[in-house]
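User: structure tokens for this one?
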Amino acid sequence: MKGSDAVGLVGEMLSIVGVVCGLPLLLYGLLRRSLDGPRIPTEIVIIQGQRGARARWFADGDFHERTLRPWERVHLHGQEVRTAFISNRDPSRMRLEPRSALTSVCLTLGTVLAAMGVLGFAASIIPMVTGSRLPGPTHVIARERSSSSLLIVRRKGQRRCACPYMIPP
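Assistant:
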């Protein structure tokens, strides 16, 4: 096996893994992003209360308020005013990041795996372009009978080689 054949086999495996894993992840991330809709950056005010920190903001002609989740409080670091991202479809939905972490991970992994699949497919074409292929049918120059009933085949430019085929009687 030549080096280009090995590159072709590895490329085929990478293209299969990239397509089977990457495209579903990429499609799922794109679906989540489209269902979530666009987000508008808005200034929010953090108010410390008895039940915990609450966020208030003005959007779509109305004031909105909600309690901050524990993992959101960690990102505040004692700030009273911060930029948050409000859903364009539903102004009462607020997030501190422009996109959810799951959507970002799905889009990133899907893009990397799909790109790996495309590069693997390109690498699997190398043996075809370079002319490397599996050996074709043997051109028999002479047939001889050996003592072990093997067919002795001579190929062009080669010495005798024994093939495990019975010589017809």
